[in-house]
Amino acid sequence: MKYVYPAIFHKEDNSYWVEFPDLEGCQTYGETLPQTMEYASEALGLYLASRFENKFEVKEPSDINGIKTEKDSFVSYISSDVLKYMNKNKSVKKTLSIPEWLNIKAEEANAPYSQILQQGLKQYLNIN
Description:
Layout: E1 2-12, E2 15-19, E3 27-30, H1 33-53, E4 73-81, H2 100-108, H3 113-124
Antiparallel strand pairs: 1-2, 1-4, 2-3
């Protein structure tokens, strides 16, 4: 889930700070412009992931052309893959069907269904 939002970059002395006008409180800073852009992508991802996980509303991104800046500032789009920042340990319940004979064998062996399913999915998806 990639998201793109406009960000305002401000130069102060020998560093930069960035804010997202559509996302109240979403800010970060860095010593160089490339570092600040990297941190901005991370801040955007963490902010949106937190909002989604807590079921809070998220404003739509503004049109970059409507954002005014001051001297020593500029606007740029920042993108972030929010899935990278979502709580990966959060469990979700899935209902599935398996053949009865396989269920009997698995129960006899006290098979840990969830663990086996996770391992199988990781193998299938080539995830380490």
